[in-house]
Amino acid sequence: MTILEIDNVSYRYKNTRENILEDVNQTFESGQFYAIIGASGAGKSTLLSLLAGLDEPQEGHILFEQEDIKQKGYSYHRRHHISLVFQNYNLIDYLTPLENVRLVDKKASSSILIELGLNPNQIKRNVMKLSGGQQQRVAIARALASKAPVILADEPTGNLDENTADEIITILKKMAKERNKCVIVVTHSKQLAQSADVVLELKDKKLQIV
Ligand code: ADP
Ligand code: ADP
Questions:
Q1: pLDDT for 170-210, tens place per residue?
Q2: pLDDT of res. 190
Q3: Which has the closest alpha carbon to 202: 180, 183, 182, 187?
Q4: Angle, CA 69 vertex, CA 37 and CA 60 arms, to 5°
Q5: Distance of alpha carbon 51 from alpha carbon 106, whole angstroms
Q6: Which residues belong to any copy of the ABC transporter domain (predicted)?
Q7: What torsion do the CA atoms of 125, 126, 127, 133 make, to the nearest 10 degrees?
């Protein structure tokens, strides 16, 4: 089922003349794991911001379940449809993993963190005492706790070694396959792109299936 759609989108930053994205079209399905690749500066992060409702295209539409995200409003879209995962995890550093997850779901239990591979001892610690890979697991647990059907991730393995990156990629893929999430990841990593169901390359202002 198509859950998210980019419909003829063109975009340029304010105070700049040239479009960064031009007539971009793409549909995204639930249960699928997408990688968006492309050279540095190609516009990958910009595209992710548009999908997240953090910015607005000058032309075209972003649709969630066939409806322009403008209709219910961008903040509604950000709160209910999507969750974001970042390269630097964006956790609240003076809280524990469970406290971080409870910021999005007050009733969340530690089982969600255990399922993602943290042990009970780690769950009670301050998140800053965890390794990068463990912190990224907490960030993904928080994304899951939000119950959003779409997970948008910007370089989620960018700060991790190859083995840890592999574990995080496996988890993201599992989210798509076992929980029917639509997972869209912007990445430089060939390792990650190889695991994706669909690889999209942003090049010359267009998005193309590789
Ligand atoms: P990528 O994620 O593929 O590296 P970005 O989406 O970050 O690319 O950036 C695409 C282009 O837009 C780059 O040329 C970048 O310098 C430019 N850009 C990004 N953010 C802004 C901004 N706020 N104002 C003006 N130009 C920007
Ligand atoms: P990434 O590593 O994801 O490609 P960048 O390092 O290019 O991101 O950009 C980091 C932040 O700076 C982003 O929020 C982006 O929008 C902003 N940015 C990038 N290029 C420019 C620019 N030329 N002018 C203003 N802001 C920019």
A1: 999 999 999 999 999 999 898 899 999 999 999 999 999 99
A2: 87
A3: 187
A4: 65
A5: 26
A6: 4-209
A7: -40
From the list 154, 108, 161, 102, the residue with the least C-alpha distance to 134 is 161
| Mean pLDDT, the chain, whole residue set | 95
C-beta 20 within 6 A of ligand 1: yes
Helix-, strand-, coil-residue percentages of the chain, each rounded to 5:
35, 25, 35
DSSP state, residue 200? E
Q: What is the DSSP letter of 148?
A: -
pLDDT number for residue 37 = 97
Rounded-to-integer distance, Cα 86 and Cα 152, Å: 9
Closest CA to 140 of 126, 128, 157, 162: 157
pTM greater than the 0.95 cutoff: no
Residues 30-69 as b or e (16 or more Cβ within 10 Å = b): bbbbbbbbbeeebbbebbbbbbbbeeebeebbbbbeeeeb
The radius of gyration of the chain from alpha carbons, rounded to an integer in Å, stands at 17
Q: Using a 6 Å cutoff on CB, does residue 49 contact ligand 1?
A: no
CA–CA distances in Å: residue 174 to residues 13, 22, 157, 170, 196: 35, 33, 16, 6, 11
Which residue, judged by its Cα, is nearest atom 7 of ligand 2? 41
* 159's tokens: 């700060």
Q: Give the three-class secondary structure for 54.
A: coil
- Ligand 2 centroid to Cα of residue 193, in Å, is 22
Length reported for the chain: 210
